[in-house]
């Protein structure tokens, strides 16, 4: 199943690159096929996709979809030769990838025209992450440890 998902996501990644920039689909396809055997080629295939996204200047939805496919491709390709029992595509990984992709698309669609917004965003993300993690981790009292 992992090999099937690696092949499928690699083909979709190649298709996404070829739709955006047709001549870049050929090196992407070669790197995707080599990526099933050599991990560095899988990373290079994703870098070709990122380069195509940057060169063409796509919108947020195209970039988000390609990023989601690239994430799936890297997750599954990295574990094709992993020991038995390693499962890269779990419910938490899929839900996390989809939710963060949705959050990125929503953030890019927000009409923020403040000059300081790009500087405040990373700080806000760190604060929100710490707030969520603090809420998920329950403090251990002395009574529970005894």
TrEMBL record:
This is Integral membrane protein. It comes from the Bacteria. The chain crosses the membrane at residues 36-56, 90-107, 114-133. Keywords: Membrane, Transmembrane, Transmembrane helix.
């Amino acid at each position: 199943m992992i090999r099937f998902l690696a092949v499928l996501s690699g083909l979709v990644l190649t298709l996404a690159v070829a739709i955006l920039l047709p001549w870049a689909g050929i090196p992407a396809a070669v790197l995707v096929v080599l990526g099933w055997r050599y991990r560095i080629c899988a990373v290079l295939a994703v870098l070709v996709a990122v380069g195509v996204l940057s060169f063409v200047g796509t919108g947020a939805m195209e970039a988000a979809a390609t990023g989601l496919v690239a994430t799936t491709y890297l997750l599954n390709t990295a574990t094709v030769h992993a020991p038995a029992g390693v499962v890269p595509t779990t419910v938490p990984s899929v839900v996390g990838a989809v939710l963060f992709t949705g959050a990125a698309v929503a953030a890019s669609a927000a009409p923020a025209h403040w000059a300081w917004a790009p500087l405040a965003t990373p700080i806000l993300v760190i604060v929100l992450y710490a707030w969520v993690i603090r809420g998920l981790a329950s403090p251990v009292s002395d009574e529970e440890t005894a």
